[in-house]
Amino acid sequence: MTTRKVRVLVAKPGLDGHDRGAKVVARALRDAGFEVIYTGIRQTPDMIAEAALQEDVDVVGLSILSGAHMALVPAVQKALKKVGLEDVVLLVGGIIPDEDVEALHKMGVQGVFGPGTSTQEIVDFIHQQLGLEPA
Asked: Are residues 62 and 76 in contact, defined by beta-carbon separation less than 8 angstroms?
């Protein structure tokens, strides 16, 4: 029996053009055995949802450094729901103030990862969310 790799979409919504952190995370996830699709910078919520649908992903990771996470996350969630992907694991990373973390969790974001988070912590979190054994 062949099991397919976990597919993770890493996206940069909004106007933020800084993608070094997203690329570091994408590479670490790939190195951990995940299949990673990186959409690039300045993606709209609809572009992210369409890519997630087309790529049949298990996880969507949003990298947001602009401070617009409280507006962008609901917009991405709405777009994901519109294409039938409301059950995908949603992660957010970047510059997220501590006071916004609980609100993001209440919105349905499973994981929030700020600067300094180890990539292994993100890998382990994805395994846990999907009920998989660590690689």
From this structure: yes
